[in-house]
Amino acid sequence: MAEEKKDKLFEDAIKQVKDDVEKKISELKEMIQNDYLPETETKLKENVFLTVGISLVIGFFTGIIFSLTGKHCGKKK
User: Fold this and answer.
1) Between the CA of residue 73 and those of 59, 60, 61, 65, 67, what are the distances in Å?
2) Of 1, 20, 23, 27, which has the fewest Cβ atoms less than 10 A away?
3) What pTM value is reported for the model?
């Protein structure tokens, strides 16, 4: 009988924690959708060319480094 009460109390506590976590998650989701998402979209649209340019430059220099120091550097293929 005492075990059943402990089990019931434990299940109730777990359910309460689960409900609290779900509530907090939904609040965070709503906050992100309303506050951060629109701002992020506009910043990405404004900086798209800068981002692509930086990616191309990094890729170019990475390619040069690997071609100069790669496994086949100085060897005939």
Assistant:
1) 19, 18, 16, 11, 7
2) 1
3) 0.49
Number of domains in the chain: 1
Task: For 28-60, give the DSSP string.
Answer: HHHHIIIIIHHHHHHHHHHTHHHHHHHHHHHHH
pLDDT value at residue 77: 54
Contacts of 69 (CB under 8 A, 6+ apart): none
Read off φ and ψ for residue 76, nearest 5 degrees. -80, 140
Q: 38 lies in a domain?
A: yes
16-64: pLDDT as tens digits: 999 999 999 999 999 988 888 888 778 878 888 888 899 999 999 999 9
The C-alpha atoms of residue 75 and residue 6 are separated, in whole angstroms, by 74
Token readout for 71 is: 């496994």
Domain interval for residue 26:
16-60
